[in-house]
Amino acid sequence: MERIVAAGRGVLVEHGYDAFSTNRVATAAGISPGSLYQYFPDKAAILDVVIDRYWEEVAERVAAALSERIADFGPGMVRDTADALLSALEADRELLRVVAEELPIHRSRERRAALERRVRELAATYLAARRESTRRPDPATAAWVVVLAVENLAMRWVLDQPAAVTRDALLDEMVALVGGYLLA
Amino acid sequence: MERIVAAGRGVLVEHGYDAFSTNRVATAAGISPGSLYQYFPDKAAILDVVIDRYWEEVAERVAAALSERIADFGPGMVRDTADALLSALEADRELLRVVAEELPIHRSRERRAALERRVRELAATYLAARRESTRRPDPATAAWVVVLAVENLAMRWVLDQPAAVTRDALLDEMVALVGGYLLA
Amino acid sequence: MERIVAAGRGVLVEHGYDAFSTNRVATAAGISPGSLYQYFPDKAAILDVVIDRYWEEVAERVAAALSERIADFGPGMVRDTADALLSALEADRELLRVVAEELPIHRSRERRAALERRVRELAATYLAARRESTRRPDPATAAWVVVLAVENLAMRWVLDQPAAVTRDALLDEMVALVGGYLLA
Amino acid sequence: MERIVAAGRGVLVEHGYDAFSTNRVATAAGISPGSLYQYFPDKAAILDVVIDRYWEEVAERVAAALSERIADFGPGMVRDTADALLSALEADRELLRVVAEELPIHRSRERRAALERRVRELAATYLAARRESTRRPDPATAAWVVVLAVENLAMRWVLDQPAAVTRDALLDEMVALVGGYLLA
DNA sequence: TATGAATGAGAATTCATTCAT
DNA sequence: TATGAATGAATTCTCATTCAT
């Protein structure tokens, strides 16, 4: 079963989503196609586990970084969280490419939404607790804006690797973006 | 050929990407499947044109709004541009949903990148010309950040329709985000 | 399409129901498996047509014989109708074997029920018109009994070919059975 | 092994022939699929035993009734035997439905033939002994006719439950059919 | 230019059977 | 004796593409 998931991830990374057929996954796992169905009800279930695992891992890393820094608001926290997100996304850029660009998004939707919600709630709670340190009226909305903006910037940077923007510069810009916004 | 593209768009909107088969598109266009290949080398080409047209239209609208306001920098310009983008995305929410969530993203990639580049360059030029009015060191990077953030926020808002964020509130937040960032 | 039905009939007769696979039928028809689906929605539809045709043919023959003789009730009519039924069943004993014994009955059910109903109604009408010539109280019931008994006897005789019963003897017994019953 | 046969009968009745897979039977029997093959050479063997048992039981009941009445020929004997057959078939209508309509008949063939033979021989013997009480020339043929007709009528009545024919009426008709035939 | 029947490789899935433990 | 994971051939059905008319 672990072998199957690993094989699925492998097929996705090596051959792309279009080649993600049960036969290919089975072959890659070194088992027969029939055996797949002893562990998974159908093809989609395999894909789901692969995707779930991926976002789960990313979420774990980011949540860890965020929790650690929850005490001291400010540029440091934003930077570290963004850094953690970047690292998590950089860890398996190939899989990110497939998951984020090759798969129909609705496959990742739920998992990604969960990741966003998790971080957003943390952020909203924090912002609500420090109302005085931001000029944004609604913490929930502010959290929604910040999380979406940072997430997308991070993903596009990892995926597109824009030559003009170094990793450090990106982090600087993110800090400026979030800082400026919350204090605007 | 116009009929084919229209039929393709129709199939996409009515039946979704999974039903986007050459036979169905041909039927919807009122021609035979063989005739498709007189105008398009393969299925992907039809899809590409449909997608291209979509983003082209969005780009047109946004660029128009941006050009109009290029003279007076400031909250007004950001707001109006974002407003134009929102309107453009709202115009065909169903197609947006299919294009942005159902299709593998890499199909839209190039066209969307073109749209972003276009707006980004406009923005970068503008920022470069008004170096004194921003604290961000690199206009190109700043434009990249601003465009990506606003685009993603707009798309997610149109797609997810978060109950807690009204259209006006969204525009306010965008203005705050961009304003705060550029002046941070 | 005619070729497909013929091929289906052929496969059924030559190889039996278990071998009635879409690929085999396609091969037997000298076409590719995909072409099957241009004419039939699924495998069952092909089988249905083969079965329908078979019972239709049998029904036609029997109804013809029955109509011809409807004027003169009596041993002659029964004998001729039974004869026609026997001939119809003997015409393609191999297919009868498959249709009646190899296929799950519920596949033939409707068609066979139609055949029975057709003959039964003819018989019931006739019996009702000649109430005085039978001692059975209910024409509908009598028709049900007669038709089922004769049909089954005929089918089993054709299928089992009991050595002890010649064709003529069978017809004699049928006449005696029906005659004795209606006058009992 | 008893458990397997019982489970097989259960699967047949609850889920139908299509669901009669080795895995399901094994599960229903509370054993593993592999263990099936310790008691039966293959899937067909299990089915055979289930079917055999069924017809065996029916045969037992009918033979018992027939033996009991063998002394006094006449309407009473026919009626009681037919009654016994009806009761036997009514006892497990669900299984009858599966065995007679869902299964390919040739699976039941041998066992059913045995049942028929058994009753037929009893009847033939009896008829031979009372030559004077029938006008039919050949006892064997007469027995064949009578047994097939009554059996089929009974089965169809139980299976189709024709509203117009009550149980008692059916028995009356059978008596009339057999009586009229033998004396015709 | 247009047709549309024909193609055929390839997809997901099932299930009777085996065999190492 | 019992297990149950593993097998893998076989099944039904789809669909992008072709090509003779």
From TrEMBL, chains A, B, C, D:
Pfam families: TetR_C_15, TetR_N
Sample GO molecular function, one term: transcription cis-regulatory region binding
SUPFAM superfamilies (UniProt xref): Homeodomain-like
Sequence ranges assigned to domain HTH tetR-type in this UniProt record: 1-58
Gene3D superfamilies xrefs: Tetracycline Repressor, domain 2 (1.10.357.10)
Keyword set, alphabetical order: Coiled coil, DNA-binding, Transcription, Transcription regulation
The keyword Transcription regulation is annotated on this UniProt entry: yes
DNA-binding annotation, residue ranges on this chain: 21-40
InterPro entries hit by this protein: DNA-bd_HTH_TetR-type_CS, Homeodomain-like_sf, HTH-type_TetR-like_transc_reg, HTH_TetR, TetR_C_15
Coiled coil: 105-132
Keyword DNA-binding belongs to the record: yes
PANTHER family: HTH-TYPE TRANSCRIPTIONAL REGULATOR BETI, HTH-TYPE TRANSCRIPTIONAL REGULATOR RUTR
Protein's UniProt name: Transcriptional regulator, TetR family
Gene source species: Nocardioides simplex (Arthrobacter simplex)
